[in-house]
Amino acid sequence: MTSTSAETQHLRDLARLRRVRDRIDREYAQPLDVEALARGVNMSAGHLSRQFRLAYGESPYSYLMTRRIERAMALLRRGDLSVTDVCFAVGCSSLGTFSTRFTELVGVPPSTYRTQGARPTADMPACIAKQVTRPIRNREARAAKPQLA
Known about the structure:
Elements: H1 3-27, H2 34-40, H3 45-56, H4 60-78, H5 83-89, H6 95-106, H7 110-116, H8 126-132
């Protein structure tokens, strides 16, 4: 394969990966799995996972869960839905998995976030609040260090 054709193929792969990422962003509340995402761009599931991780630093599933948690944070800040309702509204089918992943990314359980999450952002414009409250990607939320007296 020549360098020109390799470059062309690389650009095609990046375009397909962007389509996958855009689909996840649009359809995060729908049941999505790596096999279905891969079929949509004519790739194998394994190849999609490897290439997606190389391009975006995390697996397609991790990206999907982060997107769901971002949306869940916004719904929980509103305060009019229960944690269970939010879990199902963002496309999660297991409250336990949702709560665990939420806690890993945000640093507090969803029930705690629901009662305390809106306070710090109450007077902020929505666009700023979204940036400030974005979940941490590619690493778990840092636990508060114990204060030693």
